[in-house]
Every structure is written in C-alpha cells, then in structure tokens.
Amino acid sequence: MTTQSSTVGSGAATPAPLLRVTNLHKAFNGVPALRGVDIDVLPGEVHGLLGANGSGKSTMIKVLAGFHDADGGQVSIHGRELRSPFGPRGLRDQGMGFVHQDLGLAPAGTVLEHMALDAFGDAGAMRRVDWAAERRRVNDLIERFDVGVDVDATIDMLTPVQRAMVAVIRAVGGQERSSDADRRGQILVLDEPTVFLPRHEVGLLFDLLGRLRANGDAVLLVSHDLDEILQVTDRVTVFRNGETAGTRATAGSTRDDLVQLILGARDEHVAKGAAVVRDDRPPLLSARGLTGNRIDNLDLDLYAGEVVGITGLAGSGFEELPELLYGARRARAGEILQNGETVAKPKPISSMRRGVILIPADRKGQGGVLGLTVKENMSLPFLTNRAKGFRVDWKALAVQAQEACDRLNVVPPNPDAQFGHLSGGNQQKALLGKWMDTAPSVMLLSEPTQGVDIGARREIFKLIRAAVAEGMTVLCATSDYEQLVEMADRVIVLDQGHVRAELNGDDITKDALASAVYAEEAS
Ligand SMILES: Nc1ncnc2c1ncn2[C@@H]1O[C@H](COP(=O)(O)OP(=O)(O)OP(=O)(O)O)[C@@H](O)[C@H]1O
C-alpha cells in the first residue's frame, strides 16, 4: 500500500478541509481537557491523531460524536459552520462516522443485522425493515470495499480483523444512508482500532483505509503506535495538554520528530539492567509440562532479576500463559513450582498471597473498577492489612495512593478522581502502582502498554526495570515487538503451544522477533 494519497500528496493546491475544528474548548468540573484545539482533515487523506494519555484526543472525538458538549469553538464540515451541542447523534448526519475501540458489535448478531440495526435507528421501531433491500445494500458495501465476509455470518464467527472491518463499513454505510453530504468526502473516525488486532492482520484493515482514501473520503485515525502512524497516514496532528502541538506531513517525519512533538522532549530509552546472575537458587516460578487450551506441555523457568517476554502469532498460546501461571485459568495438565516447590491447585487468591500478581490486558474489564475512585482501586489489595478491627485506615491508604500517583505521574494526580474518568494510560499506571506497592516477587503482564502513550510507556518500563533490579521476575506476554526489544532480557516465541525459539540479550531485535514468529509462514 502506498503511504501517500493521490489527492493530498499530488502537489496540487491544498483542497478545502472536509472537517475543520477551530479553538475547541472543553472542561470537566472546571478542569480543562481541551484548551482550544485546532485540526483540519482533508479529503483523500488518512490523518493520524497522536498525543500522550490525557492530552484530549478522546474528548474531542466525543464532542464530535455528540457525547459531550463543547464549551466553545467552531466545527465546520464541508465548509458549513456548526456549533456544539450537536445533539445525541453528533455529526453523524453531517457525514461523520465513528468506530470506537470496542467496535460496538454483539457476538450473536449477523453482519446484516448489525447494518440493519442502523436502519431501525433511523426509521424508529415502528417501521418495517426492508430486509431484501438491506441485504443488497450490505452486499454492495462488502463488495465495494472488498471486505470478504458473509452477510449472514455472526460476529463471533469472524476473525478480529474482519470484525474491525465490519465496524468500519457499518459506519460508512450509516453515513451513506443518513448523510446529506456528497457520498464522496465523508469523514471516518477510528479510535485506536488496532490494539486488539493480531499484528499480522493489521495490514488488512489499513488496506481498507486505503480504499476509503482512494474514494475521496477522509480517515481520522487515533493511535499510540508510531510505526503504524508512519506507515499508514498522510499527515498527523499531535495534541499536548489539551492543545494542538502541531500538524506535520508524515512523509519526511521521523519517529523521533513525532515523539518530540508528543512529549515536548527527546525520546529517552530505558537502559536494561545488567544480565541476570543465575546462582544456585531455584527459579522464582517454573512450569513443567504445563498444558492449557493452546499451550502444550510447556517447561519454563523464571529467575529473579529478569524480564522474560513471551510472544507468537495470535492463537499460538502466548496470550494464555499469564493466566495459567496465575491460576485464573485452569491448566489441563502439568505443574507450577514456586521457589522449587510445587504449588497445589494454583488460584488467583493464593497466587496473590504468594506474591504472584497478574495485570491483565483488558484493564477496563478486569483490572480496575471504573465506578470507584483511584484511591479505592489502589487500596483494594491492602484492605485487609490496613484494617484495624472492622475499620479500614483510609488515611494511611490515601497517603499511599497519593504517593503512588506522584511517583507514577498519574494524570490527574488526584486519588479521589473516578478511575473510569482517567485516560487509558493513566488507568494502567495506577494499576501498576497498586500492584507494585504489594512488593510482588513475580509479575505476570499481559499487553501491559496497550493504549499507553510513549511517555507513560517509558515510565512503566523504568518501574519494571527498577523492580527487577530488586529481585523480582517479570513475564510479559505481548505481540508488541518494540516493547520486547526495549524491555526483555530474553524472549520465548511460541508456535502452536510449543517453544519455537528463544532469543537472548542483544539478539532481541524487531527483525529477529518477526522472523522467529513468522518463520514457518515465510518458508
Ligand atoms: N467524563 C470525564 N470527567 C472528568 N474528566 C474527564 C472525563 N473525560 C475525560 N476527562 C479528562 O480529560 C482529560 C483528557 O482525556 P482524554 O480521554 O480526552 O485523553 P486522551 O488523549 O484520549 O487519552 P488516551 O490516549 O489515554 O485515551 C484527561 O485528564 C481526563 O482525565
């Protein structure tokens, strides 16, 4: 796929923007989230929207989608000026479509039903859906955008990337139906669509974005993955602290340029510690013959002072290893040993007591309680040891939570903020802080920096390296090769539940990881 659009990159005079946001303001309880952001999105471009966690990306998108009302500023679409509030449908009827990270698809519904749901929305519950017409329309969309799914397939039958593509054409189809704008020249907003996709399938989604671009539409793509942004976008806009830090053409921009714009500072790499010294102490955690749904008869030793990465293609088993070791998922066979001694019936509660903790990938679903405050979330592991009789020492817990927020740069650094209102990266930092305070000996991580910006990522790596230097061991299951290169002392590559390769020290490079993961496919 080319990285330049014919419309934008042709050297012709810049076309009029499809979407122009000027001086947009929004505060929550008096705290500004947007302090006057500006962005122009042109026809025929994929425009990246970057920024640290909490910089205001989602807030702007939620204003455009009608979820929040802006406090001030202008928005124009196709040159027509509009002012927030935009009502519950946001700018959907003006030619904008939105695909949120969770995709908004129900597993049991078919592709056709999902698309027709939008028709129900338009027509009201009383009107009959013309199923034959819907089927023609949906088939036409699938063909036009070469999505390759069956209209009657249920969502749970589709691969993750097919689901993402269905969500995209569903948004496109919704626009075609409701927009009074010209069919060409619509704006599709994708909020971190790739974080849950297997790396090797992301290209299929990007090809679809290329087809939209060729159609004269525009895509606004929010992502923290700079390689992805450099690969797929024509221009990028960076938000910093609720303001626009700048807009750049992607061609000619480097990763470091973008990092500097995001952070307002140069990128700083975290040094890995010295190599682990393996004395005659037993490993902190081991597996022998461990077998799960995918993992098959795996032997593994995790030693004090090391970060061990585990990776592979989706379905190779690497994703289930943290949960098996933690006891959140029952093994079919095999045993787990801690400090050389067999662990009888591993369960989450006993793992926690033994100093083994798990930070799951889906932090919103599993890691934190959205309706509680940051302090309450951070206090959960300590409620018993901070209890005096029936009373909990909230004062001590508040001090502890404040210290963790400050140490980890959680934004806002306010333990009384609602956890669910924190941006994704800040939620992850708060969760890490909570578990680090329990001084674990084994930390099992699953995609620990998904949705986390580059600055917070560095802080998380630093914390992990510091804890490892004190004698902890970390297992990090991820398909993010860059993270493995930066963080891991050794990486185990799985294939169909078995160890395919092990890379150590300086041999851990992105290329080496990719060729180990894809070795069989390439041959
Ligand atoms: N409903 C809300 N109530 C209070 N504060 C909020 C609310 N939504 C967002 N914020 C705050 O507004 C600021 C901007 O958050 P926003 O979610 O827009 O950032 P973001 O750039 O999308 O971050 P991320 O990359 O982590 O998703 C943050 O400080 C956040 O805590």
Topology record:
Blueprint: E1 19-28, E2 31-41, E3 46-51, H1 57-64, E4 72-77, E5 80-82, E6 96-99, H2 111-123, H3 131-144, H4 160-178, E7 187-191, H5 202-214, E8 218-222, H6 226-232, E9 235-240, E10 243-249, H7 255-263, E11 285-291, E12 298-302, E13 307-312, H8 321-326, E14 333-338, E15 341-342, H9 348-353, E16 356-359, H10 363-367, H11 374-379, E17 387-388, E18 391-392, H12 394-408, H13 424-436, E19 442-446, H14 454-469, E20 473-477, H15 481-487, E21 490-495, E22 498-504, H16 510-522
Parallel strand pairs: 3-8, 3-9, 6-7, 7-8, 13-20, 13-21, 16-19, 19-20
Antiparallel strand pairs: 1-2, 1-4, 4-5, 9-10, 11-12, 11-14, 14-15, 17-18, 21-22
Helix pairs in contact: 2-3, 2-4, 4-5, 12-13, 13-14
Bound molecules: adenosine-5'-triphosphate.
Adenosine-5'-triphosphate is lined by residues 28, 33, 51, 53-59, 411-412, 421-425, 453.
Helix fraction bin:
25-40%
Using only C-alpha atoms, the radius of gyration works out to 24 Å
Q: What is the distance, rounded to the nearest whole angstrom, between the alpha carbons of the first and last residues?
A: 23 Å
Kindly provide the name of the CATH class of the largest domain: Alpha Beta
- Strand portion, in percent? 15-25%
CATH 2nd-level architecture of the largest domain: 3-Layer(aba) Sandwich
